[in-house]
């Protein structure tokens, strides 16, 4: 391929970006750290929807759009598929396989925030690992609950919520200490499929703690779909 636009958002995207030469573009939304040691070009920021992305693709003479965004970044993935179609170029996607429940797991799938709020009612000490979304709902915390919220960056909590700034990968012993210290009785998680954050599920299994799993969104059909970096690099023949 002459010129690739790689939409990043997961660890695997950075692994692909490290193989790309200076004619290619690695694009990040701007959340998290921006790498400074890549040979490829790095672009930070949005595009203004599918039309804006299509304009960028045309302006930059992009030949292939590779979507390696987070499994829950459904709108970005939809914009990518639409922009590629408008531009007449192929859209490929790296999509992480979802975690699968194992023996001893108590997983309860929830569809949205309203569904989650209802499922949380019996619990007192939830641990949220959904990113920033719960920050919009701190005023809704019932008086009988105390939330622990883990996010990438520091954010203010309140008298019934403490926000922990932490980045994976997370070690299982540290996760055990967190669950014990805060007496976590329910874990709330996206099904990201990331090995870096999987230890929390192991600890929940060990302790018999239920896991409320936010259902994965439906993602658009693309020209080619991969589930590993190795598959992508083989297809690119880099």
From TrEMBL:
<dbReference type="GO" id="GO:0016491">
    <property type="term" value="F:oxidoreductase activity"/>
</dbReference>
<keyword id="KW-0560">Oxidoreductase</keyword>
<protein>
    <submittedName>
        <fullName>Cobalt-precorrin-6A reductase</fullName>
        <ecNumber>1.3.1.106</ecNumber>
    </submittedName>
</protein>
<dbReference type="Pfam" id="PF02571">
    <property type="entry name" value="CbiJ"/>
</dbReference>
<keyword id="KW-0169">Cobalamin biosynthesis</keyword>
<dbReference type="InterPro" id="IPR003723">
    <property type="entry name" value="Precorrin-6x_reduct"/>
</dbReference>
<comment type="pathway">
    <text>Cofactor biosynthesis; adenosylcobalamin biosynthesis.</text>
</comment>
């Amino acid at each position: 391929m002459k010129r690739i636009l790689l939409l990043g958002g997961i660890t695997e995207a950075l692994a692909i970006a490290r193989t790309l030469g200076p004619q290619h573009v690695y694009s990040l939304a701007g959340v998290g750290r921006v790498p400074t040691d890549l040979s490829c070009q790095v672009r930070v920021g949005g595009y203004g929807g599918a039309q804006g992305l299509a304009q960028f693709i045309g302006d930059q003479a992009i030949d292939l759009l590779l979507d390696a965004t987070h499994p829950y970044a459904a709108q970005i993935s939809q914009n990518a598929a639409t922009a590629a179609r408008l531009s007449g170029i192929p859209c490929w996607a790296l999509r992480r396989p979802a975690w699968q429940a194992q023996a001893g797991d108590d997983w309860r799938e929830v569809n949205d925030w309203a569904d989650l709020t209802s499922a949380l009612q019996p619990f007192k000490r939830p641990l949220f690992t959904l990113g920033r979304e719960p920050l919009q709902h701190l005023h809704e915390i019932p008086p009988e609950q105390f939330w622990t919220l883990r996010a990438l960056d520091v954010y203010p909590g309140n008298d019934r919520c403490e926000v922990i700034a932490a980045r994976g990968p997370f070690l299982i012993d540290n996760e055990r200490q967190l669950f014990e210290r805060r007496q976590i009785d329910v874990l709330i998680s996206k099904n990201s499929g990331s090995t870096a954050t999987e230890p929390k599920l192991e600890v929940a299994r060990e302790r018999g703690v239920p896991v409320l799993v936010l259902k994965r969104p439906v993602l658009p059909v693309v020209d080619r779909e991969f589930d590993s970096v190795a598959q992508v690099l083989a297809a690119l023949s880099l």
